[in-house]
Amino acid sequence: MSETEFPRGLADRLRGILIDADYTVSGVRDRLGDAAARALAREELVPALRATGGEERLGLLLRLWWLQSPIPARAARAVLPVDELAEAGLVTVEEGAGGPVVRALVHLGPWDLEDGRPGFVVSDPKVRPGSGAVPRHDHVVGAGNASATLSQLIVDGPVERALDVGTGCGVQALHLASRAREVVATDLNPRAVRLAGISLALSGVADARLAQGSLYEPVEGERFDLIVSNPPFVITPDSSRYTYRESDLPGDTVCAELVRQAPAHLTEGGWCQILANWVHSDGDDWKDRVGGWVTGTGCSGWVVQRDVQDPAQYVELWLRDSCEHGTPEYTRRYDAWLDYFEREGIKGIGFGWISLRNDVAQDATVRVEELRHDIEQPVGPYLPDVVDGAMTALRLTDAALLSAHVALAPGVMEERVGRPGAPDPEKIVLRQQNGLRRVARVGTVEAALAGVCDGTMPVGPLLDAIAQLIGEDPAVVRERTPDALRTLISEGFFRVAR
Questions:
Q1: H or E element at residue 310
Q2: In this predicted structure, what is the pLDDT of residue 88?
Q3: Which helix (H) or strand (E) element contains residue 166?
Q4: pLDDT of residue 2
Q5: Residue 6: what pLDDT?
Q6: How far apart (Å, rounded) are the C-alpha atoms in residues 456 and 447?
Q7: Closest CA to 318 of 341, 344, 291
Q8: For residues 164 and 172, what is the distance between their CA atoms, to the nearest angstrom?
Q9: From CA 449, how far away is CA 403, in angstroms rounded?
Q10: Which H/E stretch holds residue 415?
Q11: Which of 32, 353, 373, 396 could be 36's S-S partner, Cβ–Cβ 3.0 to 4.6 Å?
């Protein structure tokens, strides 16, 4: 983005004004209060407007940038460089009922960054239900729940080079800036590229590179240590409506292509992490479908399905997203969308994430699973351990496993369920207190191993001792235990010490 589009000096001054007024996530939360914040979550503005009345600086900034309410020009000029912001296209000055007012042309919101610095995200104003408006074709959506999900997923740095594909308002590029020496952010939508540039400038990120283009086209021939993407993954019959959520590729192809092309743009050991939708159909299992995207890439990784919606739920979600509920077009679009799903044999749509590590290995494996329960956030710090566990379990032969030194993973607890006074429990469960919080039902041998393994002795001799204690043949225990233990290693209950 050129200096003429959004001057660096103006960005620095506006950033200083926002921080000085405590226009931060915590400052906004405190200023609004719980009741107004809950009302905003329900798309009700009145409590927030009442809470931000008057001409105090933070209240003025909240009304202007967050609530999209015009403020008196006199009060605005006392706080902001209005003329320069108008020239840059962020505000407009117009005549109101009581005199000149300043109206925001963008939404400017605070955002927390990992390194403790305040960040700011610039997007198009949110189109609210009942307003009678729908988003423009090149609408740039602000940071929301999906943005937060992806930011919690990103592996820790530092890395040399990072890429944000489909940057939108630039929120993921802001997170990458705290991890990478060099950040590149791309988007097909030129308006998104412009607003992302303003987000980065206002957040004090001065050296990110922005480029317009589809998928990996703007970075052809380049490699990165970390690639992230919250792509336009919505599965729809009409791909030409909104660039922020829909691509021109059919079905879930855009997610498949991001995955398939990733290895060509990753350094060895580099990560690609994306949010995705995928099709559920009668013809194939979703695990086979998504797993097939990764087959042959040389990447190990982790695919997680967090939710599944039936076609009607899915259509309603995205028609609400574009504020079409209650409009004359609602029924027609709803019906056409369901027709499309029927033609394509789509019975449901899965939502989740895909994390790949470029191991350049023939035996690379990707764990594909469904996790609906709450897990520890952020995921990024322990995500490599999840992938390592799956790779280790795959590579261990029975003989290697019996010779390995295994330790119980931190935070694993044992639960026994049985009748009081009974000599043996009816059920033994291992439960992770942190991380993925998995639960595994285990047998007596695995439970006994969990109680004694600390990484100092090989598995084989430990199993021999356990077999003697429970009165079983050590050879039989050695033969039947590796498969169960391999699964427990893959799921993170045990770790191979060395």
A1: none
A2: 94
A3: none
A4: 39
A5: 81
A6: 18
A7: 341
A8: 7
A9: 14
A10: strand 412-417
A11: 32
- Sign for the pseudo-dihedral over CA of 492, 496, 497, 498: negative
- Token pair for residue 408? 């119980």
Report d(CA 345, CA 86) in Å as an integer. 50
Q: Which of 271, 90, 117 is nearest to 198 (CA)?
A: 90
Q: Is the pTM of this model over 0.85?
A: yes
For helices 459-470 and 474-490, give the axis angle rounded to 10 degrees: 120
Which residue carries 């026994």 as its tokens? 416
* pLDDT in the model for residue 333: 94
* Mean pLDDT of each 10-residue bin along the chain, 498 residues long: 67 96 94 92 90 92 95 96 96 92 96 87 87 86 93 95 98 96 97 97 93 97 98 90 92 96 97 98 91 90 96 96 87 96 96 95 89 96 94 92 96 92 87 96 95 95 96 95 96 90
Is the bond leading into 381 cis (omega within 30 degrees of zero)? no
Question: 6 CB contacts (<8 Å, ≥6 apart)?
Answer: 88, 194, 197, 198, 201
CA 394 to chain centre: 27
By C-alpha distance, which of 466, 488, 486, 467 is closest to 476? 467
The amino acid occupying position 27 is: G
Could you tell me the two tokens for 25?
């996530």
Residue 424 CA: distances (Å) to CA of 22, 127, 391, 418, 498:
61, 61, 35, 7, 33
Q: What SS3 class is residue 349?
A: strand
Q: Which long-range contacts (C-beta less than 8 Å, at least 24 apart) are formed by 208-211?
A: 208/173, 208/177, 208/183, 208/184, 209/182, 209/183, 209/184, 209/185, 210/1, 210/167, 210/184, 210/185, 210/186, 211/184, 211/185, 211/186
For residue 5, the model assigns a pLDDT of 67
- Residue 305 pairs in a beta bridge with 352, 370
CB 390 within 8 A of CB 300: yes
Q: How far apart are CA 17 and CA 32, in angstroms?
A: 19
pLDDT of residue 130: 67
**Distance of alpha carbon 370 from the chain centroid:** 16
Tokens (6 digits) for 325: 């509920």
Contact (CB, 8 A) for 350 and 307: yes
Give the burial string for 409-428 (b: 16+ CB within 10 Å, else e). Answer: beebeeeeeeeeeeeeeeeb
